[in-house]
Amino acid sequence: MSQTLIAYFSATGRTASIADALSSTMEADIFEINPAVAYTNEDLNWNNDQSRSSLEMKDPSSRPEISNHVEEMSKYDTVFIGFPIWWYREPSIIDTFIDSYDFTNKKVLLFCTSGGSGIESAVSNVKKMIPEALSVEGKRLSNIKEAKQWINKER
User: Fold this and answer.
1) What is the pTM of this model?
2) pLDDT tens digits, residue range 13-26?
């Protein structure tokens, strides 16, 4: 039997609502990626080049600490990873998440929320990070209806 996990990071709640819809539609397990230090509004101010998120995104080696961990990642053969697009790619905390687990022979489906940026750079980055994955694909999702349509195609 296929085991599916929906893992996501959501700074404002938008990605969380998509993740919840995917999880309930698929009856999949869900896991919220929580930063060890929560992001404040000032941390997320992309107009401030000294804000926490700006500094993290300028440093490709940045790996913000995560406060929680997936129990028994090995039981999942399909892992959806959701996030907002930051600076045209996945947030650094997603890189921390990916570095924390073995994705060998797993199907990885990325989904993002964004005001306009696509997911292409994130897919490219993640493919390089986990070449041992069975596949890595991605989709930018604007709303819950679109998410449900996408998931029905992926099943």
Assistant:
1) 0.93
2) 999 999 999 999 99
